[in-house]
What we know:
This protein is an alpha/beta fold. Helix content is 46%, strand content 15%. The chain has eleven helices and seven strands. Strands 3-2-1-4-5-6-7 form a seven-stranded parallel β-sheet, with helices on both faces. Strand 5, helix 7 and strand 6 (189-196) form a beta-alpha-beta unit. Helix 2 (22-33) runs parallel beside helix 3 (45-58), helix 2 crosses helix 10 (229-240) and helix 5 packs parallel to helix 7. The radius of gyration is 18 Å and the shape is globular.
Amino acid sequence: MDANALFDVRGKTVVVTGGSRGIGRMIAQGFVEADATVVICARKAGPCVDTAVELSALGPGTCLAHPADLSTAEGIDSLTARMADVAPGVDVLVNNAGAAWGAPVDEFPASGFDKIFDINVKGVFALTQALLPRLRAAATDADPARVINIGSVDGLVISRTDNFSYGASKAAVHMLTRKLAATLAPDQITVNAIAPGPFPSKMTAHAFDDEERHRQVLDRVPLGRVGSEEDVAGAAIFLSSRAGAFLTGAVIPVDGGVSGAR
């Protein structure tokens, strides 16, 4: 058995939504450095293009930018059309694009549920549905196509913040992952979720920019640190490689032990 081949993703075509920053960028960088062709999608054209240029420079893989708003049908259609031009199939789809909303329970608006569920749940399903022909085209018995949904530790355990719709949406993503896995297994498409704990990103900047809040976050992580690029990219590459080919319907906490300690 070749240990290196177990985690080889060279030459794969990978789509990473929300790939211009945060966890999406970390995952995209991991695949580029592992010699895959990565298409990142984000709403803002400037950061999306800039990130693609920066990641391509790291090599040996390539990163392509596709700015689009995936909360709209037009955005999903444009990405689907772009992928038809990039490669015959999509080997890996990473559904990472997401949003959060926080407000006290007495003040939490209905729009805070509508927006978050539209992006975090409906968007995941709609893009996976749209790219199914390309995923099926890439799938084989020996090397299934892969869908990786980015959930959250907040969808597994009770959050200490007032993110009512976010936690509920990520719990929905976890269940959607299991349902899609059961449905798409006959097509040789695996569907798994990564549930990250605390990672540095724009979404979590409020916690890491304040020294006291940062300390409180670290105090709740049994391993005593926040996640790194290698942690989340490693999980995604494992799920996309031969090593992860027999795994489907799983929700994998990448959280330093947070979900097991609450």
